[in-house]
From TrEMBL:
It comes from Thrips palmi. It is found in: Membrane. SUPFAM superfamilies: Tetraspanin. Belongs to the tetraspanin (TM4SF) family. The gene is LOC117650454. The keyword Transmembrane helix applies. InterPro entries: Tetraspanin/Peripherin, Tetraspanin_animals, Tetraspanin_EC2_sf. This is Tetraspanin. Keywords: Membrane, Transmembrane, Transmembrane helix. The keyword Transmembrane applies. One of its GO terms (cellular component) is plasma membrane. It is a multi-pass membrane protein.
Length: 287
């Protein structure tokens, strides 16, 4: 078949586009795997979520990212084959799959944007109540099942305090109203002073080790637990975690929305290029 200049140009551009298309698929695969491997997302999303069903959303999202990324790699291969062999049928199938992926990605972006505020609704009151009634009391049920989404509230709070250098939800005095604080005073003997704040509220000497929030080692524990602000100054974090947690969730959701819409826009460009190639192939065939 004689190949016109327009067909050659469109074919080259479409093949080059598919290189970028494959890169976007690989990026989604990495993001999906990162959700499973990064402990921050599991711990912090546990705090943001109001129920177990909502906590599982992050894993459904990871599966969706992996599925979309894998589909992009396969569809991109079909697009390259169709362009190289000038098969309008294959290119047409490629366009249909691209449009389907655009719909899925825009759906993920819209759902993330719409439900973001629902996750934030009542967050301060919910976390404050859980801190009072659950912190330090759920260690016995550290794992309810093998699902990492079921990690207990205490571990998630400890991680947040380590990650954001914060203490409590509003400030470090939040713990004075908790059952953990009261139980510590019931159990403490005359030779043992009860803790005013968890160890993860203190500046740690083992912050560079793996998972330091699991076995925190304060630089000066006695000074950190002291009632006098002048003594525990610079050794205890005072700011609450709530603001940092909200900023983290908004940032993560914004990145997801931007990623999905950007890749969807890239795929729409692929649709345009594919249609141009189909038109040029038809013109060459009729010439």
């Amino acid at each position: 078949m004689a190949v016109g200049c327009g067909t050659k140009c469109a074919k080259s551009i479409l093949i080059s586009f598919n290189m970028l298309f494959w890169l976007s698929g690989g990026t989604l695969l990495v993001l999906g795997a990162w959700v499973f491997l990064d402990p921050a997302k599991a711990h912090l999303f546990h705090l943001v979520s109001a129920s177990q069903a909502k906590r599982d959303v992050i894993y459904y999202l990871a599966y969706a990212l992996l599925a979309i990324g894998g589909s992009i790699l396969v569809i991109g291969f079909c697009g390259c084959c169709g362009a190289l062999h000038e098969r309008r049928c294959m290119i047409g199938t490629y366009v249909v799959f691209l449009l389907f992926l655009v719909a899925v990605e825009m759906g993920v972006a819209v759902i993330t944007f719409v439900f973001r505020e629902e996750f934030m609704e009542g967050l301060e009151a919910r976390l404050s109540d859980q801190l009072v009634n659950k912190y330090g009391l759920d260690i016995a049920n550290h794992y309810e099942s093998n699902n990492v989404a079921n990690k207990d509230f205490t571990t998630s709070v400890d991680f947040a305090q380590y990650r954001f250098n914060c203490c409590g939800m509003r400030n470090d005095s939040d713990y004075q109203q908790t059952k953990w604080w009261a139980r510590g005073r019931e159990k403490a003997g005359q030779a043992e002073r009860p803790r005013n704040v968890p160890l993860t509220c203190c500046v740690l000497s083992n912050s560079e080790t793996e998972e330091p929030w699991q076995s925190p080692q304060p630089k000066q524990e006695q000074a950190c637990q002291d009632d006098n602000p002048r003594v525990h100054e610079r050794l205890r974090y005072k700011q609450g975690c709530l603001l940092e947690l909200v900023l983290w969730f908004r940032r993560e959701s914004t990145v997801l929305v931007a990623c999905c819409t950007s890749i969807a826009g890239l795929q729409l460009l692929g649709v345009v290029l594919s249609l141009c190639l189909c038109r040029n192939i038809a013109e060459d065939a009729s010439a």
